[in-house]
Specification:
About 30% of the residues lie in helices and about 20% in strands. It is of the alpha/beta class. The strands form three sheets. A seven-stranded parallel sheet has the order 5-4-3-2-1-7-6, sandwiched between helices. The relative contact order is 0.12. The structure holds ligand FHN. The site of ligand FHN has 6 residues, from loops.
Length: about 425
């Protein structure tokens, strides 16, 4: 009887989810859409040798046993979640996502489903997720937890490495794995109550094989207000482009670019290819201008310390976001590039247009096709009032004049300067008939 009730409630929930009114989803997504910036944290035993997370044994760069020897070196000896949360807050991020379990199957919490956790198998010998969640919440940050559906260590997961499969089709073993996966997700959901579940590793099997629809309904029953990313076979809430800044605005209303700060997700001491603050801020601006979020990844060392290069980047990112917070948090995608040759954003009521200016312009800024009257123009975070000049407005033409804005050198930000243009109402752009 209990099973029948559970099945029925699942069916009801999955129907309700598939018919979730836009207004309810919009409310659920609002903090995410306003947040703009999150910090991704890949932390696991792969930091011990400083090698690719999970992939290094899957791709055969070293044997599984060699990879798992890293368990003995993972200490979390200097893990300070309060300091992490304060740095994340200082970076301007409004949420963070920690890898609770990557494809290698090593859980960062005291899972009851098996012994493969940092609690039971490493010198860290404690749950690292609970203090992470508590520290984030103390800093008024939203909590995200990454979870890998696939688990290359689990004896019932069909894939072991790129060249070795445990089995092809064995419904008993696959169902046993699905039960394991479901129970671990339930642990993560009902123990930590994350605001965001960041799934990964759904690519080996279809939504039907993963029973993704029912899983999404279960998550809704455990966490009715939680947001779920796209990597649950099409049953997620938002798109997750990875590493490459989208060239065109993604079709999904909600999306988040996840990107490494150098070229590695986890800590790799040999990877010195850190992006500069200017490169990261300009990528972040591109995401804001296209109405999306940036999830910037850091990789703490095995002892829990965050590499100094990453701390420095997060601090400069924080300086910039704090100075320009009006043009970041709560804004929406800007106007098409035909009207201003650069990234722009709009206030929620669409009456303030923000222009993002890279470097030092060689002449005045130019806005075309703006039908609005301009009430005021100023430099965000600096306050200097600027004087727009409208030229080429012909009395006989419908085409709006050209708006020129001179930008004096002393107002320029060392990274990206932001100009606010207060309009006489919601932005109104001229369109050729
Ligand atoms: O395979 C993982 C990879 O290790 C990393 O965790 C990224 C982060 O988005 N996700 C997968 C690759 O898409």
């Amino acid at each position: 009887m209990k099973y029948v009730v559970a099945l029925l409630s699942m069916l009801l929930l999955s129907t309700a989810l598939s018919q979730e009114p836009d207004s309810i989803k919009e409310r659920r997504m609002r903090w995410f859409e306003d947040a703009k910036l999150g910090i991704f944290i890949h932390w696991g035993i792969y930091a011990v040798n400083g090698i690719d997370e999970s992939w290094s044994f899957y791709n055969g760069y070293l044997t599984y046993d060699e990879y798992m020897k890293q368990l003995k070196g993972f200490t979390a000896a200097k893990y300070d979640p309060t300091a992490w949360a304060r740095l994340i807050r200082e970076s301007g991020a409004r949420y963070a996502v920690l890898t609770s379990k990557h494809h290698d199957g090593v859980a960062l919490w005291d899972t009851r489903q098996n012994d493969l956790s940092v609690v039971k198998k490493t010198p860290a010998a404690r749950d690292l997720v609970t203090p992470f969640c508590a520290a984030l919440r103390k800093e008024d940050l939203k909590v995200g937890l990454y979870f890998s559906h696939l688990d290359w260590s689990h004896p019932d997961y069909p894939h072991f490495t790129r060249t070795q499969k445990r089995y092809d089709t064995d419904s008993v073993r696959w169902q046993r794995f699905l039960t394991f996966q479901r129970r671990q997700i339930e642990e993560v959901a009902t123990t930590f109550h994350p605001d965001l579940l960041w799934f990964d590793g759904d690519w080996d099997y279809s939504a039907e094989q993963w029973d993704a629809k029912a899983m999404r309904a279960r998550i809704a029953s455990w966490l009715p207000n939680a947001i779920v990313n796209s990597r649950i076979n099409g049953y997620g809430d938002y798109a997750t482009p990875e590493q490459g800044v989208p060239i065109a605005t993604p079709k999904s209303r909600w999306w988040e670019l996840c990107m490494t700060i150098n070229d590695s997700w986890g800590y790799q001491g040999n990877d010195r290819n850190f992006k500069s603050p200017n490169q990261i801020i300009r990528i972040f601006v591109d995401c804001i201008a296209m109405g999306g979020n940036l999830l910037l990844d850091i990789g703490p060392k095995e002892d829990g310390t965050i590499p100094q290069e990453e701390v420095s980047v997060l601090k400069e990112l924080g300086r910039w976001t704090k100075k320009h917070e009006d043009a970041v948090y709560g804004t929406r995608a800007g106007i098409p590039k035909e009207y201003f040759y650069g990234p722009t954003a709009l206030s929620k009521d669409r009456t303030t247009l923000y222009l993002f200016v890279d470097g030092k312009p060689n002449g005045p800024l130019l806005i075309k096709g703006l039908k609005n009257k301009i009430n005021r123009v100023w430099v965000v975070g600096n306050g200097t009032k600027l004087n727009p000049k409208v030229m080429m407005k012909m009395y006989w033409s419908q085409i709006p004049g050209l708006v020129y804005i001179d930008l004096p050198d002393h107002v320029l930000d060392p990274q990206v300067t932001v100009i606010a243009v207060l309009l006489d109402g919601p932005v109104d752009l001229f369109h050729e008939q």
